[in-house]
Design a protein that fits this description.
Helix content: 25-40%
Oligomer: single chain
Shape: elongated
Number of domains: 3
């Protein structure tokens, strides 16, 4: 199954012409809370099976759910961060279905009257393009337990540790038109949740997962029949699942078939989706208000108190970085993608060249962390050291090239890790050569040794860069590059372009 895209990356080329992908996402985000939605059982990841289960979670007779107001506060906080309508009156319903990891025989969720209504998220696309994706709703619900099929050759076991854990289901409008847009949406949503402190966004641990709804249609035509891809737990897999599923649907339709509304699973090993179960058109018959829970109500003051405690969110921080530090939209966007990254940059940039600091953080620091598999909080080079390194460049103690070398020494495991960059530069004799006489001597030597290159440079002035490189090499990279360039041009009689 090949995916031949047209010039418009959002369209798929088919035998009968172009097709448009329509995508909506239902993201399940685990609420950051020490206790479950309706019980006091713990929620920590990695506990031994069935060690974090209350009588409520196990559905013992006579056990009644009691709302955890921390979870309510976190849902409202998230709704405010999504610029969404907060519903001060909402209702918990029973969603009835039967599965081994759901001991109650129903899930407590919200259906017709959710806690949060319509909102929006602005996502960043290529070439600085911004797109607004609508949020339809956010509701609170319980997570189910987990069936374990690899513990016994003939039996399946059930772990109820996750049973009753609070989830926020965040439902988007079908506003996305490509895998890239869906991935950008999840990245942005995860960043907002982390800034707010309402979900840790750890997809590997299941704290954030997405049900991906995909359909195809002729551009601008009627919506097609959608398929839901359940529980996709990585941004990379979301992209792969969408691209495969969209192409599959186009092939089915163009072969004369029709798309059945169904639930599918994504197989990361094979890179394809497969049918899981049929999905009925209407499912409202499964819901009715939970008789054990009163409608959820809270005051306007409750909402206002939460609103006052909101942090500076990614979009606001990005705009401030562009205005206050004169950063490009791209650089600012990269820096604010995680709150910890933004904090690191601001600490490093305090009182110095912000653009140079941003280049150092985005280039050297992020590259080093990615290679080592570390987070910014685990960086062996702290923000104040990065600031000191930028200062050494600014006052021309070292060149940018030498700064990269010094950073690597400070980052890699060894005696120089985390040390003061000024001390390293002094001890290793890495100070930039600014003495005009020394630089001129090196330039003269290179010119004298390469008369043929001199004639070439006079004919093609861009060749002067070769001489600059040779001089830098001769001086061990310690000569001031700008001074070398000016001298080379002057000696060759070439005007600076």
């Amino acid at each position: 199954m090949t995916d031949n895209m047209t010039e418009n990356a959002n369209l798929i080329a088919g035998v009968t012409g172009d097709w448009e992908i329509v995508i909506g996402l239902e993201v399940h985000a685990q609420v950051s809370s020490d206790a479950k939605l309706f019980s006091g059982a713990a929620t920590a990841f990695g506990a031994e099976p069935n060690t974090q289960v209350s009588l409520v979670d196990a559905a013992m007779p006579g056990m009644l759910p009691v709302i955890n107001w921390k979870c309510v506060e976190q849902a409202v906080r998230t709704g405010l961060g999504l610029k969404a309508e907060i519903n001060r009156y909402s209702v918990f319903d029973r969603k009835n279905y039967f599965y081994p990891d759901l001991p109650q025989g129903y899930q407590i969720s919200q259906y017709l009257q959710p806690i949060v209504g319509e909102g929006e998220i602005e996502i960043d696309l290529e070439a600085g393009v911004l797109k607004t994706v609508g949020i339809e709703r956010l509701h609170l619900e319980q997570d189910a337990g987990k069936s374990l099929h690899d513990q016994h050759p003939d039996l399946s076991f059930v772990d109820l540790n996750r049973s009753g854990v609070a989830l926020m289901e965040i439902v988007s409008r079908p506003d996305m038109r490509s895998a890239a847009e869906a991935q950008a949406y999840v990245k942005k949503l995860r960043a907002i949740l982390r800034y707010l402190g309402t979900c840790d966004g750890n997809m590997e641990q299941g704290s954030l997962r997405a049900d991906v709804n995909v359909s195809v249609r002729k551009p601008g035509g009627e919506l097609g029949t959608r398929c839901e891809i359940k529980n996709v737990n990585s941004i990379r897999f979301i992209g792969q699942a969408i691209e495969y599923e969209a192409r599959r649907q186009v092939d089915v339709i163009e072969d004369g078939g029709q798309i059945d509304q169904e639930t599918r699973l994504f197989d990361p090993k094979r890179g394809e989706t497969r049918s899981m179960r049929s999905k009925e058109e209407a499912h409202d018959y499964r819901y009715f208000p939970d008789p054990d829970l009163l409608p959820l109500t809270f005051s306007a003051e409750f909402v206002e108190d939460i609103a006052r405690s909101l942090p500076e969110l990614p979009d606001d921080k990005k705009n401030r970085f562009m205005e206050e530090y004169s950063l490009s939209a791209y650089d600012a966007g990269v820096l604010v993608s995680e709150a910890e990254n933004a904090d690191f940059f601001e600490q490093a940039a305090k009182g110095r060249d912000a653009k140079a600091t941003a280049n150092m953080v985005i280039g050297s620091v992020f590259a080093g962390l990615n290679k080592a598999g570390l987070t910014i909080l685990q960086s062996p080079v702290k923000a104040d050291r990065i600031g000191q390194l930028v200062d050494l460049i600014s006052d021309q103690t070292i060149s940018s090239r030498i700064a990269k070398e010094v950073f690597d020494l400070m980052f890699d495991v060894g005696p120089e890790q985390g040390r003061d960059p000024a001390v390293i530069v002094e001890e290793k004799g890495l100070k930039q050569v600014t003495d005009a006489g020394s630089i001129e001597a090196a330039v003269d030597e290179v010119i004298a040794a390469n008369p043929d290159k001199v004639e070439q440079a006079k004919a093609k002035p861009k060749m002067a860069g070769w001489f600059v490189g040779q001089v830098m090499q001769r001086t061990g990279g310690k000569a001031n590059p700008q001074a070398v360039k000016q001298l080379v041009l002057a000696k060759l009689g070439i005007e600076d372009q």
